[in-house]
Amino acid sequence: MAPSVQTLPTSVSDEIYANVKWEELGFGFYRTDNMYVAKCKHGESFQEGSIVPYADFQISPCSAVLNYGQGLYEGLKAYRTEDGRIMLFRPDQNALRLQSGAHRLCMPYPSVDQFVSAVKQVVLANKKWIPPPGRGTLYIRPILFGSGPILGSLPVPEYTFTVFACPVGRFHQDNAGLNLKIEDKFRRAFPSGTGGVKSITNYSPVWITLAEAKAQGFSDVLFLDAATGKNVEELFASNVFIVKGNVVSTPEISGTILPGVTRKSIIELTRDFGYKVEERIVPVEDLLDAEEVFCTGTAAIVTTIASVTFKETKTEFKTGDKTLAAKLFATLTDIQMGRVEDKKGWTMELTDATTPGLKF
Ligand code: COI
């Protein structure tokens, strides 16, 4: 489901917006003006970094990230509201997830305050790239990686924390809902591996499955657990939910499922609507028996799943305006876009004053 396209507010002018054809915005790389960089030597803590013009990095060919995949990324968004405010959604949750991943991958990490401050600075330094309300969002990409050279044994001498941002439109283009393929050969994560943290190494190893599924006409893949191959885990980059009657189920956080910030928020909103939410093992049979299926993620927001194909058999699910997914999408985006009062305390409003010393 996509945010509805609205008429541009009258305040849109060249002064406050970059020269972008907002209506053509997809979900791709867009070079913006500024980024944040902080470095940390082995045995030290991250100190305040700085905003610098967006540019390529110079990096050692022997760096830990290039040779051993020591890296994590996060994804969150900045939203421009109808009344001209700029909002972030739960950036502290991304900071905490980055910390948990850094622990798993043996890296020092920025404090929650440093993380949130870096995100705010990047948004304000790229303010004109935040799309007008209803036309998209500014996707923010914090990355933490081993930038120092390492050939043999630890320690890695240097780490880099960087944040950049790109204006984005919709992640999925399928208006009527996604058509998924259950991937029955490759697994995304395995017990005690890194599936539960946002390691950069979780993604490219399964591009092969995504490429094959897309070539066959599917929108995305749904992975099964590595231990038994019987239970559903998640899509390429989003969590999955199934609805049956008044019960909504989603795979439990067990080390192989990414603890999505949107997932956590949707569980809370679903409970507020009076549904029973179960975080549990979800066998493929339960998914195929569901009335409705949807996925959640920062990029995906809340997206309806129209069908799932498993071993050549296609099962269809309820789609459209009357689904729980539609209601959750509307409720979540109303909070994120500042269209309703945020009773949860999930949003953070940005003003230049929240980042002392910065002038834009
Ligand atoms: C996100 O939703 O932030 C993700 O990490 C998905 C990414 C593939 C765009």
Automatic annotation (TrEMBL):
Q: Does the keyword Oxidoreductase apply?
A: no
What Pfam families does the entry give?
Answer: Aminotran_4
Keywords from UniProt, A to Z, are: Aminotransferase, Pyridoxal phosphate, Transferase
Q: Reply yes or no: does the keyword Transferase apply.
A: yes
The record's listing under CDD domains reads: BCAT_beta_family
Per its Swiss-Prot or TrEMBL entry, what cofactor is needed? Answer: pyridoxal 5'-phosphate
Instruction: Give the family this protein belongs to, as stated in its UniProt record.
Output: Belongs to the class-IV pyridoxal-phosphate-dependent aminotransferase family.
Q: What PANTHER family has UniProt attached to this entry? A: AMINO ACID AMINOTRANSFERASE, BRANCHED-CHAIN-AMINO-ACID TRANSAMINASE
Q: What is this protein called?
A: Branched-chain-amino-acid transaminase
Supply the source organism for this entry.
Brassica rapa subsp. trilocularis
